[in-house]
Amino acid sequence: MIRAADPGPIPESRSRALLSWKGWTSMARSQATEDLNLYNIVSRQFDRAAVSLRFPEHVLQQIKLCNNIYEFQFPVRVGKRFEIFTGWRAEHSHHRKPLKGGIRYSEHVDADEVKALSSLMTFKCALVNVPFGGSKGAVRINPYTTPPEVLQRVTRRYTAELCWKNFIGPGINVPAPDMGTGEREMAWIADTYDGLNHGGLDNFACVTGKPISQGGIVGRTEATGRGVVYGVREALSYPSDVRQFGLTPGLEGKSIVIQGYGNVGSHAAHIFAKEEGAKIVAIGEWNGYLVNHDGIDLDALDAYRTEAGTMLDFPGAQTVRDDPIKVLELECDVLVPAALQNQITLANVDRLKCKVVAEAANGPTTPDAEEKLNKRNVLVIPDIYLNSGGVTVSYFEWTKNLGHIRFGRMAKRLSGHKESQMISAVERVTGATFSPEERRSLGRGADEIDIVRSGLEGTMVDAYREIRDTVKRKRQVRDLRTAAYTVAINKVASSYEKLGIFP
Ligand code: GLU
Prior knowledge:
The chain is an alpha/beta fold.
């Protein structure tokens, strides 16, 4: 086990005080015996995998602990006065450069959460062979009640603070969206960085998740949700595995409950339903949830939500308002927590009725709750694998920015032409004729979106196979999370060899 130099657990009272996020955390807070500090949770998950690895303890410590964290205060004008905001950027590991990770805007964020999230970034990048070290940033602010002009000033000043201390740059540290931020904030970051680094050819590679018009890549917004679907589909594709969990292979017809209908949850829901034929039977938000056992019509829901400003009282489903976290307890095949950390805890785990927990959010299941799920034979697909689609496509965006060329630009016409020739040859040899529609779709060549999606799909499939192999091969590793950490720690450790810290 790892001990020395570890700052040790954060006192319970402090860790619980940081949790409140509207209705979702009421259950978690009622739990008196469980440590809900995300930093401690990630440490426990790491230790569980580390015990079966043969690296010296100091190597494991170096990999486990967060290298540095910059915490700073900065003033921003709000109306006629100035307010002081707190920001962070944690750098967990420099074994690969640049470092990578999102920026979270939340009223409840704190240094431990940012450090924990930065470690998750290291392991998720290693797992999917994205060559970055892990980082994460945050500002303590409520992004939903703060006016856009204040958010813009805060984002620009936050970026300037990072610039002044060398915590951002295409080869140094590359932020991206996380909870409470999106393309708009990334555009402000890119613009501010560009203004402070005059003439830098690669300036726009200083941040990912940008709008397409500002150097973004198609498919980045949907990427985390799409990666979740590819990951679950892969996990449910092995007949002998899924039978153990009381399921049949494949996603077709499976009932799915989604907690959180933000960027990740909403894209995952649409892709599960439209591309995989699954049924979204419930969707939870912070103020209530919707249930329809025949499947929720997502297009109708989106149209209703745009009009009404809320998904509650959508006529195509039953609305339940009290205790929104109870959405997790509905019967289903796959439960997708796509909201916050600490949603599945000792307080509610015994009431879960799903066969699979697919962790789209970071840290939604506590270690104690996971132990119970494992005992009950519920498959937990861990966050560091399942939500790595976002950073995977961020990697594609970063390479696109450094290459200064859109994917597919050089080869699209050529491959389209070759496909058309192939279709004509098939027609000639077989005597069959393709419809004009088939000809158009078969002979169009790959666009950027096709390339991005196929790169993401390949990444998710390969990583799952590596994790699954580890479970099969290593006797001490019994669950996917421990296997995922094992794979990731091995990869990070091998890149530390060059430091000469191995005996
Ligand atoms: N915030 C996302 C995550 O937690 C994306 C990070 C990135 O694209 O750098 O994985």
